[in-house]
Write a structure and sequence with these properties.
The structure holds two protein chains of two kinds.
Chain A lengths: L1 H23 L2 H29 L7 E4 L4 E2 L7 H10 L3 E2 L8 E5 L2 E5 L3 E3 L2 E3 L3 E6 L4 E6 L9 E2 L4 E5 L4 E4 L9 H11 L11 H14 L9 H10 L6 H17 L2 H11 L1 E5 L2 E4 H10 L8 H10 L12 H17 L5 H9 L16 H14 L2 H6 L3 E4 L3 H15 L9 E9 L5 E5 L11 H4 L1 E3 L5 H9 L10 E3 L5 E3 L2 E3 L11 E3 H6 L3 H11 L1 H10 L18 E3 H12 L3 E2 L5 E5 L5 E4 L5 E2 L3 H17 L16 E6 L5 E7 L3 E9 L13 H12 L12 E7 L13 E7 L25
Parallel strand pairs in A: 1-15, 3-4, 12-14
Antiparallel strand pairs in A: 1-11, 2-10, 4-5, 5-8, 6-7, 8-9, 13-14, 15-25, 16-17, 16-30, 18-23, 19-22, 20-21, 24-27, 25-26, 28-29, 29-30, 31-32
Helix pairs in contact in A: 2-7, 4-10, 4-11, 6-7, 6-8, 10-11, 11-12, 15-23, 17-19, 17-20, 17-22
Chain B lengths: L1 H15 L22 H4 L17 H16 L3 H14 L4 H13 L3 H13 L5 H17 L3 H13 L2
Classes of the chains: A alpha+beta, B mainly alpha.
């Protein structure tokens, strides 16, 4: 058996030698053959390239960043105007009767609309047809439009607020062919490559035609490229015009067509095509193009808008409708004519579309220009958890906490209060941060007076003296020693001199007066410096520092008594963290600007969950909150009562630094906390106090956003008493001028006031009686 | 039945906890430019301290719907989405002690006893007068502390739970 095999081998070796001899007689065949081998190898190489790139991940996609989705339900605090502005930003079309997703019909305070489907963290939210009615302040009713039944909840598609990309990066929204309207595809084929469905990648008649036209005119005026060739050119090849590249293009087109279905190639083309430039970002594909120019998906475009986009393929910058509207309109109408001639649209539609306005959205949507300061914060959080390269290439979908309504209101209020002052104070700046008190979500952030200015982010990076904003930490330290202090404890606000390491410290009050014996809550409410300094000295500076550290002020603090009056630098972010402890009822809530991160396919990658940590016991937390409400009720923020009902129970604290260099206000209602700063970058005086500057911005914000009643959660260990204002003693009906104050049951209480007729009893707020 | 219970949960908590209730700003927007009586007047006299009677939570339906959804996620073992859905409900009704209690229970299931404990404390802070819920929270705290090997704290929490019965 083994022998037999050997003989066969020998025989075939003989054969090979024979054929070798024959070849050597015809050398040109050998050359031709090796050329053929090289060619085949080269084609195989191109084929591999086509295959690899087309099969693999075709495009690197920037991460997309979204605002919070609007959730509608009966009772939501939202006006019809706010709702309309949000729908406008989302690109919903105003129509007489909404029939398709993304359409809305409005009649005064009533809306009928169809929401867009969207993939969220917890899956797909399908399109809903709803009716919404508003009262002057609230959403009154939410109904299913098909049967009129009440709907519990409707969630809308979120506003895209930016993408994370590198310099000169291509950006696109990938779409499946079935997500692109048929007439867009038909129009594109009619205009760019009529024989698309019949050719094999290249179109000899088209090339001949182009050659003829080009030769007769002596320059290149017409290209004979098929859609496949255009795709190959953009996808695999450089931008140089050369014969060699043309050759490659033709071969690769043929290869692509032999490997893939027409529809697959078409889908790739629709996503690849270059349509516009947005600063450093190149806009590719009809998905993003549609959003970039019209702020809506292609399914919702009108015939004229489709024609405009199709027309732009020929020359995106030459036909840029924002820069050259007339040129773009002419090109659009040409496309419309072709569409009509090819029977894609009928005569009536052609005539109607010809006269339609271009209908562009003003600002380029989805760019990082709208909310740069907030995006800055999001990016910082993302960089902690993700590689930069993944952020710019993996098409991650980032769901943030930004509330566009509050962001617009914050920017508007900053603008309204800073702009008029710029004549006198051209360098005046401002910043603000709004958070949800219960869950720490960052709802709005302004890093400077100009909305949309992507520069120095004052909300995150500026560190300034905080002045009286720090005082609640001193008073909380006292109230936590409940056997020594209560809200009615008397504190001396007379002149104070304190010597430390040879230096004399003589704090003064803002009004340059001394106020004698004042109740503890009054000293905080009126922001008396001297009384605060005395209280602080009594407690010891280290005790106050310990409190601040517990309340997440984590930097090194100078252990000097001037700390009691805020002679320490904090950022707006630090101040927000500090006040969130109060606004959330004594719980520390980490700030979050991101809710969820999904991958490009909508699969959840990461959730940033809500967490809380109790840092103040319920009773002292209640007392300090009540004291901060008294700041608004009768203290340095009392002018807020001109604009807001006292029953809202707003709480807050003003802060002013030496010579009016910084103007601060930190304030909260039952739902959100906002901290506002005003001042100059060079730290020079600018003439505004906390109340005359930052607090006015705060008031403007809460007036337009709507304030929510704050009812402090009262612990069982707290009881209320009337206190005589004059003598700071427990009072009853015999006393004329009294104030109701909460006390810790087991803690200290004032003696009975002389005016009291009997033994003062616990006082119950009406809602507890 | 589950729906009815959820509805009861929300209505009950609406009566006892402090639901959101909005009052419009007095002047801004409606009567611009007309100042209210100045500060001296706006300093409240004590007999004017009115705390409005809380109206029923207007957002009840939405919260019930979300709790239903959270229940469905719970049944299917999708704890991540259950948590996300309860957090969504908390955005709508952040003063609802029952929602915080629910989230605390979820964190315990997720193996986060420290958060479970803290969230239960948060729930208690918002559940004045609701002894059953408070007892439930203390039992949750006890469970969480046991799993953190804090037997002293766990026993203290159990004692508080018993005292509420």
């Amino acid at each position: 058996m083994a022998r037999k095999k050997r003989t066969t081998r020998r025989r075939s070796a003989k054969k090979r030698r024979k054929s070798k001899r024959r070849h050597s007689r015809f050398p040109w065949t050998k050359i031709l053959l090796s050329l053929l081998v090289v060619l085949v190898a080269y084609v195989a190489f191109l084929d591999f390239q086509v295959y690899r790139q087309f099969e693999g991940k075709r495009w690197s996609l920037p991460a997309r960043v979204y605002a919070r989705p609007l959730e509608l339900y009966a009772g939501l605090r939202l006006t019809s105007e706010q709702f309309a502005s949000e729908l406008r930003a989302l690109g919903y079309r105003s129509v007489r009767v909404a029939r398709k997703a993304g359409e809305v019909s409005r009649n005064g305070n009533r809306f009928q609309l169809i929401s867009r489907p969207f993939v969220f963290w917890d899956g797909q939210e399908s399109s809903q047809s709803v009716r919404v009615a508003f009262s002057s302040t609230h959403l009154k009713s939410l109904q299913d439009d098909r049967n009129g039944s009440a709907l519990a909840l409707a969630r809308f598609d979120p506003l895209e607020i930016g993408s994370i990309h590198t310099a000169r990066q291509e950006d696109r929204i990938l779409l499946r062919l079935d997500e692109i309207p048929d007439i867009l595809v038909e129009a594109l084929i009619a205009v760019e490559d009529r024989n698309y469905y019949t050719h094999h990648g290249i179109s000899p008649p088209a090339i001949a035609r182009a050659l003829w036209v080009n030769l007769s005119s002596g320059r290149v005026v017409q290209g004979g490229s098929t859609l496949t060739q255009q795709l190959v050119k953009n996808f695999f090849l450089s931008n140089r015009r050369s014969l060699w590249r043309k050759f490659n293009e033709a071969i690769m087109s043929l290869l692509l067509e032999s490997r893939y279905e027409k529809d697959e190639i078409l889908q790739a083309y629709l996503n690849e095509v270059y349509l516009a430039q947005d600063g450093q970002r190149a806009i590719h594909g009809f998905g993003l193009g549609s959003r970039f120019f019209f702020q809506r998906p292609p399914q919702e475009l009108s015939t004229a808008q489709i024609a405009l986009l199709v027309g732009m393929v020929k020359g995106p910058s030459y036909y840029d409708p924002r820069r050259h509207p007339d040129r773009a309109r002419e090109r659009r109408n040409l496309v419309l004519r072709v569409m009509h001639e090819q029977g894609i649209i009928d005569r009536a539609q052609y005539q109607k579309s010809r006269t339609e306005k271009l209908g562009l959205v003003k600002a380029a949507a989805g760019t990082s220009k709208t909310f740069p300061a907030f995006l800055d914060m999001v990016r910082r959080q993302l960089r902690r958890d993700y590689n930069e390269s993944d952020l710019v290439s993996e098409g991650l979908r980032i769901f943030t906490t930004l509330d566009p309504q509050l962001q617009w209101a914050l920017q508007k209020s900053l603008d309204q209060h800073i702009r008029p002052a710029l004549k006198k104070q051209p360098q005046l700046q401002g910043a603000g941060l709004v958070t949800h008190s219960a869950n720490g979500e960052v709802l709005a952030l302004a890093g400077g007076r100009e909305a949309g200015f992507a520069g120095f982010n004052r909300a995150l990076d500026a560190r300034r003296h905080v002045g009286s904003l720090i005082k609640p930490a001193v008073y909380l330290t006292a109230l936590e020693q409940s056997t020594r202090y209560n809200l009615a404890s008397l504190i001396d606000d007379d002149a104070l001199e304190y010597e430390q390491s040879g230096q004399l410290w003589k704090p003064n009050n803002y009004d340059r007066k001394f106020h004698g014996q004042v109740m503890l809550y009054q000293a905080l409410a009126n922001s008396y410096n001297v009384a605060t300094a005395r209280l602080g000295l009594d407690l010891g500076v280290n005790a106050v520092i310990r409190t601040l550290q517990r309340l997440s002020v984590d930097q090194a603090l100078n252990p000097y008594p001037s700390l009691f009056l805020g002679a320490t630098d904090l950022s707006l972010l630090d101040v927000t963290r500090l006040y969130l402890n109060f606004a959330s009822g004594g719980f520390q809530v980490p700030l979050r600007s991101i809710r969820e991160v999904l991958d490009a396919g909508g699969v959840p990658l990461q959730r940033y969950q809500l967490s809380v940590e109790r840092v103040i016991d319920p009773a002292p937390a209640y007392l300090i909150n009540r004291a901060l409400q008294m700041v608004v009720a009768e203290g340095s923020a009392r002018s807020l009562n001109r604009r807001f009902a006292s029953a809202l129970g707003l709480a807050g604290k003003t802060g002013t630094t030496n010579d009016l260099r910084d103007s601060w206000f930190a304030g909260y209602d039952g739902e959100k906390l906002a901290v506002i700063w005003m001042g100059r970058d060079d730290n020079q005086p600018m003439g505004l106090s906390g109340a005359s500057g930052a607090m006015q911005v705060w008031a403007g914000l809460f007036a337009s956003a709507g304030a929510v009643t704050q009812q402090l959660a009262q612990p069982d260990s707290v009881e209320w008493y009337r206190v005589d204002r004059e003598r700071a003693g427990l009072a009853d009906t015999g006393c004329k001028d009294t104030v109701q104050l909460p006390f810790i049951e087991s803690g200290s209480k004032p003696a009975t006031a002389p005016c009291a007729q009997g033994r003062p009893r616990r006082w119950l707020p009406e809602w507890l009686q | 039945m589950k729906r009815v219970i959820s509805l009861l949960v929300v209505l009950l908590s609406a009566c006892s906890s402090a639901p959101r209730h909005t009052l419009p700003p007095v002047v801004d927007g409606t009567q611009p430019g007309r100042p209210q009586p100045e500060a001296a007047d706006s300093v409240e006299r004590p007999d004017r301290v009115e705390v409005p009677v809380p109206p029923p939570a207007p957002s009840g339906g939405a919260v019930v719907a979300l709790l239903d959804r959270a229940d469905a996620y719970h049944q299917s073992g999708d704890i991540g989405n259950e948590a996300a859905t309860v957090e969504r409900a908390l955005r709508i009704d952040p003063n609802n002690g029952r929602l915080w209690n629910r989230l605390a229970a979820i964190r315990l299931d997720q193996g986060q006893p420290r958060q479970a404990e803290q969230l239960a404390l948060k729930s208690n802070a918002l559940s004045r007068g609701e002894t059953r819920l408070q007892a439930q929270n203390w039992r949750l705290v006890a469970k969480a502390r046991w799993s953190m090997n804090d037997s002293v704290g766990a026993r203290a929490a159990e004692k508080k739970a018993r005292a509420l019965h």
